[in-house]
Amino acid sequence: MPQSRRDFLVHTSLLAAASGVALRRVFAADADAVEAQTAYGAVRGVDVGGIKTFKGIPYAAPTAGANRFMPPQDPAPWTGVRDALEWGPSAPQREPGSAGASSPLAVATANLPREGEDCLVLNVWTPAVRDGGKRPVMVWCHGGGFATGSGSSRVTDGTNLARRGDVVVVSLNHRLNVLGFTYLGHLDGELAASGDVGMLDESGLLHHMGRRDTQAKIHGFRVELRSIERTMRRVPGVMDAAVTVGKTSTGQNFLAGYAERSRDAEV
């Protein structure tokens, strides 16, 4: 008996819900491990059909505790090789105790990984690693009206796009809803950026992916650019900040800092 499109989607969704243990077994049997280096440590993914896949790589620190409602902070570096084989957590978005979407057609919210405040993770699909190729990087920010959704979705796997276009595909999770867009600056000046931290997560990822100058040598001293940026973001009235390195006409390095004011800043 022919299978309807709806039945096919249902069966596909059930198959995709295999546990992480089962996935690791499949990877071990049918795929080759592949490693890549990030700014914070090495990661281990898998090569399936020629596409190198890395999942759940942290691009910022967990957002709980002191980091809640604050701009994203750098993740803690790790030693050794970190497994990047499973989806990372989705951003908190449901009322505690409520059931999630179950329809296979609910792309934004169906069958998502657990929710958690350690949700600032990304996933990468690439045709090659360290082959000298200069490929376009396509960053996909999931839908959901800034209230729901996740980049950790099997429905939006980037394998075929990476293969067809010879591109690097990146998806990410960022803060949503109350934790991502509640403005609290009128209660505490240190929370001046709270109303936009979900967007700062996204812009922080793009900033990190595009930069190469994480350190600079100024008058014989080596300085950490991210450390300066973090200090600038703590200044009352500053929502975001960036530091770049330039050169004078005599070839000397200098730092240039840029700051974006929060919406209620007086200066």
Question: What would you note in describing this structure?
Answer:
- This protein is an alpha+beta fold and 267 residues long.
- It has two domains: 26-210, Rossmann fold; 215-261, ANL, C-terminal domain (GMP Synthetase, Chain A, domain 3, 2-Layer Sandwich), CATH 3.30.300.30.
- 22% of the residues lie in helices and 25% in strands.
- It has helices at residues 5-16, 20-30, 159-165, 177-181, 197-210, 225-233; strands spanning 32-37, 42-48, 51-58, 81-83, 121-126, 137-141, 168-172, 215-218, 221-224, 238-247, 253-261.
- The strands form three sheets. Strands 1, 2, 3, 4, 5, 6 and 7 form a seven-stranded mixed sheet that branches. A two-stranded antiparallel ribbon has the order 8-9. The chain has a two-stranded antiparallel ribbon with strand order 10-11.
- The protein is globular, with a radius of gyration of 21 Å.
- Mean pLDDT is 79; it is low at 8-23.
